[in-house]
Specification:
The complex is a heterodimer. By secondary structure, chain A is of the alpha+beta class. In chain A, 22% of the residues lie in helices and 29% in strands. Chain B has two domains: 2-67, 2-Layer Sandwich (Alpha-Beta Plaits); 72-126, Alpha-Beta Plaits (2-Layer Sandwich), CATH 3.30.70.20. A four-stranded antiparallel beta sheet of chain B has the order 2-3-1-4, with helices on one face. A two-stranded antiparallel ribbon of chain B has the order 5-8. A two-stranded antiparallel sheet of chain B has the order 6-7. The chains are: A alpha+beta, B alpha+beta. Chains A and B meet through strand 18, strand 24 and helix 8 of A and helix 3 of B.
Chain lengths: 497, 129
């Protein structure tokens, strides 16, 4: 028997409503079956608490006297977008401070506002007949703002790819520190408590759904950007009053060598209107699968190494083709549960009524890659032929080649023409100065950082920077040297652009 | 127990650890080592019952020895219980409980600092800073 929303709200009003958190549903449906569970349970609450970069807030400052049309505005030296005249601006969570680098950003300004801390405001504009003022500086708290409205373009990812690193250097990403040689894997998402995992067909989650947002009552505005429900990567755009939020459910995040993000707490109630909804909310961590991606490959399509479930990820260890890899969650399941429980309490005590969406979210949205007018140049298009030497030659012979051919780097190859080392002009001078070694074998660097012919030059440039070196031999799949790319040549290329 | 060994450039050339191991016969595990041109600092793990003997042998060779005290300061109010720290710690100081909250056993810490930079909300700091 289907239940109506009015019946559920009537039970919320008279205090007889039966509310459970989404992690309890697998047991309830397992015991009673979906049909009886739908009769028993009125509302299932979900929750998620993760670093959601695509977050921010609209602020309306009120007019100064004489008035100003702000064209640029900064809060604690973090720029907010002010192109909407005259005293409104949007501060984004990942916008960084112009004075404090990666350690302070828009997310911190938002946390400072929610914590009722004073924020320093600076704005400039050009004078007009109606707005004569050119600049203003002041300090204010969230209470001094006329409106402070959180509006997050992309929150509540249904699930997210897990991240690991195949390279021999640590990577610092928005998924946290990824240790070398598959040293760890990180993931994000609340799994069994994730709002969209419990309503994958967006039957009750849609435009106008009332939600818990960082402690306040908020609403779903529509689908989030990059919404891709067909691939189980649905997202939400959400809105709520910043003045009613609490730092218990909102925190600024610093991701080392990446920048700032905002921990946002979202809870979505799902009214159990029928058996189908009850069955969907019985989803378990073991049913929610995601891919482990290799962030060591800095391309749009990162290699998918394996499919794992949230159950495996939460166990603390995943098996990656025979290697045990430890896992870390970047989102907080503990806080997600706290949110689902808090929302359930508010519904039970009658302070939070449930609403159905006025419009359904699209289920057929498709995400295309960016249209690019030109392709990034590849290493093979800019590499130069490389002079290579055999490891049997002497230091003096190598010195002659370096001077004669006017090069700084000599890749060293084996009989089979495979790369086995590299010597630089500096290595040769050092060997001569210290009167050390006749053969190249003793002075060459054996672990050579290389480039592949089919990778974009941006990746080669980033590798030169990370390893603090000035040239990369380009090798084919058989590890034979087919060219060389140097920082000098790259700089010339970029200068011509 | 973990002890911190500090030594100056003057005695850096000596095979200090090898000598102490040979003399005392105690199996010492090096947890972390930092040595540059002017100073050396090594954290070693020594069986509790042998700490005095080992410390005395190091001191005899001019090494400054002290006990490693909780090197990481944890600010509970700043922790959001995400668990980002869990997988990056080489000594498995952090672990996840059934309810998703995080436990820590700071006695195992050797101050590699990886968790400090990994923590997204600044809940972990080095005691000396």
């Amino acid at each position: 028997m289907p239940k109506s929303l009015d019946e559920i709200n009537e039970r919320i009003r008279d205090g007889s409503v039966y509310v459970v958190t989404a992690d309890e549903m697998p047991y309830i449906v397992g015991e009673l079956g979906a049909e009886d569970a739908a009769k028993e349970v009125d509302v299932v609450t979900t929750g998620t608490f993760g670093a959601m970069c695509s977050s921010g807030a609209w602020m309306s400052f009120g007019h100064a006297d004489p008035p100003i049309k702000m064209s640029k505005v900064w809060l604690n030296d973090v720029e907010a977008y002010a192109g909407v005249a005259a005293v409104d601006a949007f501060i984004g969570a990942t916008q960084l401070s112009e004075t404090r680098g990666l350690d302070y950003g828009g997310a911190h300004v938002i946390e400072d506002l929610v914590a009722r801390r004073e924020v320093y405001v600076k704005a400039v504009g050009f004078a007009t007949d109606c707005y004569p003022r050119r600049s203003i500086e002041t300090a204010l708290t969230v209470e001094d703002l006329n409106e402070a409205i959180m509006l997050n373009p992309r929150n509540g990812y249904q699930r997210y790819n897990a991240a690991t690193n195949s390279t021999d250097k640590a990577l610092y990403t928005y998924m946290g520190t990824l240790l070398p040689r598959f040293g760890n894997a990180t993931y994000s998402g609340a799994g069994v408590l994730s709002p969209l995992c419990n309503d994958p067909d967006c039957e009750t989650i849609g435009v106008g759904t009332k939600i818990f947002l960082c402690g306040a009552e908020g609403h779903i505005v529509g689908n989030g950007t990059q919404h891709d429900p067909a691939n189980r990567f649905g997202t939400l755009m959400v809105r709520g009053d910043l003045k009613a939020m609490s730092t218990d459910f909102l925190r600024a995040a610093i991701l080392h060598k990446y920048g700032t993000s905002l921990y946002v707490g979202i809870g979505v109630p799902i009214p159990v209107l029928n058996e189908g909804i009850a069955r969907k909310t019985a989803i378990r961590d073991a049913d929610i699968l995601t891919n482990v991606l290799d962030y060591g490959v800095a391309r749009r399509e990162r290699p998918q190494l394996q499919t794992v479930s949230y159950d495996e990820l939460k166990s603390g260890m995943i098996d990656l083709s025979g290697k045990e890899v430890r896992t870390s969650s970047m989102s907080s399941f503990f806080k997600a549960k706290e949110i689902a429980v808090e929302l359930a309490d508010r519904i039970r005590t009658g302070s939070f009524a449930v609403a159905l969406p006025t419009t359904r979210l699209p289920l057929d949205a498709v995400q295309k890659p960016m249209k690019q007018r030109s392709k990034a140049p590849l290493v093979r298009e800019v590499m130069l032929p490389s002079i290579t030497v055999h490891d049997s030659i002497s230091v003096q012979e190598a010195a002659k080649i370096i001077i004669g051919k006017q090069v700084n780097h000599l890749p060293v190859v084996s009989d089979a023409r495979k790369l086995i080392g590299i010597v630089t002009a500096y290595d040769i001078s050092k060997a001569v100065a210290l009167n050390k070694g006749d053969s190249l074998k003793g002075i060459m660097t054996r672990r050579v950082v290389t480039a592949a012919p089919d990778e974009p030059i941006d990746l080669a440039a980033r590798r030169l920077e990370r390893y603090n070196i000035s040239a990369l031999p380009v090798v084919d799949q058989a590890h034979a040297v087919i060219g060389i790319i140097t920082s000098e040549d790259l700089s010339k290329l970029l200068a011509c652009r | 127990m973990k002890i911190v060994l500090k030594f100056s450039q003057r005695i850096m050339q000596n095979p200090l650890i090898a000598d102490v191991v040979l003399e005392t016969g105690v199996r010492i595990n090096i947890d972390r080592a930092f040595v540059d041109a002017s100073v050396g600092e090594i954290v070693v793990d020594v069986p509790d019952e042998d700490v005095e003997k080992v410390a005395a042998a190091f001191r005899l060779r001019g090494v400054e020895v002290h006990e490693m005290v909780t090197p990481i300061r944890f600010e509970e109010a700043e922790c959001i219980q995400c668990g980002a720290c869990v997988s990056v710690c080489p000594l498995e100081v952090f672990s996840r409980n059934e309810d998703g909250s995080i436990s820590m056993d700071l006695k195992r810490c050797v101050l590699c600092r990886t968790c400090i930079t990994m923590c997204p909300h600044g809940a972990l700091r080095a005691e000396e800073e």
